[in-house]
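Forum > Structural Biology > Help requests

Title: Can anyone predict the 3D structure of Glycogen synthase?

Hi all, first post here. I have the sequence for Glycogen synthase but no way to get a structure on my laptop. I'd be grateful if someone could post the structure tokens.
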Amino acid sequence: MHVIHLSVECFPLAKVGGLADVVGALPRYQRKFGVDAWVVSPFYDKPFTKERQFQLVHGGTFTQGAETLAYEVLKEENDPLGFPLYLIRIPGKLDREEVYCYPDEAEQWIAFQHAFLRWISDTAIVPDVVNCHDHHVGLVPFLMKHATDFNHLADVKTLFTIHNGQYQGWMTWDKGSLLPAFDTWKWGLLDWDGLINPFAAAVKCCDAFSTVSEGYLKELFVQANGLERLFQMEADRGFGIINGIDDAYWNPELDTQIPKKYKKSSVKSGKKSNKKEFCDAAALDSNLPLLAFIGRFAQEKGADLLPDIITHIFSTLEDKICIFILGSGDEAVEEALQELQDRYPQRLATFIGYNEQLAHQVYAAADLLLMPSRVEPCGLNQLYAMKYGTVPVVHAVGGLKDTVIDVAAASGYGFLFQAPEAEAAAQSVVRAVETLKDPSVLQKIRQKAMSLDFSWDKSANKYIQLYDQL
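Reply #1:
Sure, ran it for you. Structure tokens for Glycogen synthase below:
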């Protein structure tokens, strides 16, 4: 079976969020089970592309509105990711440093999708399945069925995988002239509430859609940023498949990015050693419980709650806890955290930005990981944390609710709170600190969390079963 994963993020080529981690791992695990899985992404002017050799495998031109665009398809020569990686370069559009935040983003993603279809059409590549990831490539299922130049691909099956339904790629109808020529009788498949909505178009036109957890699939029926009715109508084509993690990369026993490697049987000494070195560098007290947050400072992640959560925690626990924050985004959150760090210099440390090695070190050092997300389709941070014996404290939503069981249950290994509110989150942190101050309880919960299997093997097989079904 030949499957092409189409995505604008892929780790380590370009990473903004969990989408990159999924696309950078899932195809490799699928290849273990005999699937000829490729990844096709835009070309970025990043260290990954500068440090590797690429072979030009195809080139051509196409018209986008009043422009004639030239494109190249480049293949990484040595397959370091464990799967064939193809990058589409379009001078002036798909050759930039960043993934997002450009004013002509709609034009970029239309060009990416058009060039992809032009390439596989011109070279007679006919995959069994095109797995489209998120709205950036959401027009592909429509174009394969209804675009004049590409409807010979109508029988190729499409799976639309939803990593985050909050972002839908809305564009006004004046952008319609930029699309490849299509059957205009089908314009309604592109439309939602008077706008071209690539996300909605994908749900309407794909052969099936998947979400990255079963819990998130259920939530989309009642909270989908305006598309609740669509999901209710198309419910029979929806599937929930929990994300996995790359346990060769996120594994304290193998991790070369942390000072001290450890495994389940040595988690106590391993985490103590990593915590001591980390806290010394961050000017925090390694003898106190260490709570961490890693993520974007975005409302959906509950990051706007962080200042109030921290204030509540310190007012209750006083000098009984340290906190480390790794992330960036909302400037108001960044400023508020800096003010709190100035107020509590020995209890709170922040790193504004993202650093992959530092993230590994945080997971290895921290006792607790906080995730106050309002929306969390799957969540990977809690899975990474548990692999490193770090106990999650999470809002019971989406994939967090699917993957974390509260310690109140006999089989539990984490702490859940039911409302995305600062006081509720802080109370759960306090409950966690009080519960885990017993070393034997802490050790038991750590080992239970580290024993869980969230590897990609199970999830990759579920995707393959769905491909077979299509």
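The longest strand covers residues 54-64. The mean pLDDT is 96.
Shout if anything looks off.
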